[in-house]
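Reading a protein record of the kind used here takes only a little practice. Think of the row as the fold of the chain written in a discrete alphabet. A record is reproduced here so that you can trace the correspondence yourselves:
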Amino acid sequence: KLGGYGIIRVLPICPPPNTTLIYPFMMLALWGIIMTSLIGLRQPDLKALIAYSSVGHMGLVISATLIQTHWGLSGAMLLMIAHGLTSSALFCLANMNYERTHSRALLLLQGAQIIFPLMAAWWIIASLTNMALPPTINFMGELLILTTLMNWCPLTIIITAIGTTLTAAYTLYMLLSTQHGKLPHGLSLPPMMTREHLLLALHMIPLILITMKPNLLF
């Protein structure tokens, strides 16, 4: 997010990039979305999966900022703020699981919904926002970026559609792997504490407020 902010601030004061210069960086950013999503689909490590999710979303941000249109920059800013809150909430949830199981392997984290129903609710909310489900602010940011890319080059809709589909696939894979399935034997797991619910609420409440009034960011 800091790198995306730097790109937004530095590019306007640089000489206007020509098409020949934009194409290589644009293709790297778009291809990176697909590659990181495919890696996330086969990732057994929960924190690594969330990290690859962040890399994939930042590919959209870079591609939007390179075009330098109002819609592209607005969508990039929306997506950076939205995914900053969403990704941080997912990392918090992953750390809460790690503190209880001392493992980041998805195989040992399955079945958590049975003993942590409130944590499962937080997982569902964070996962749905990570998938850019309407009408979340993540969806608004991605919609602006996809529209900008399609106006710049209609062929980009193929890559972005594949990337969006894969994002939904690995997010559902993460959610089902951690919340469903048979609970491993021999685990003594302490219940969730109030500070953990407060921490997650401080991530999700701003997302909900910005979703209800997005012109605060514009």
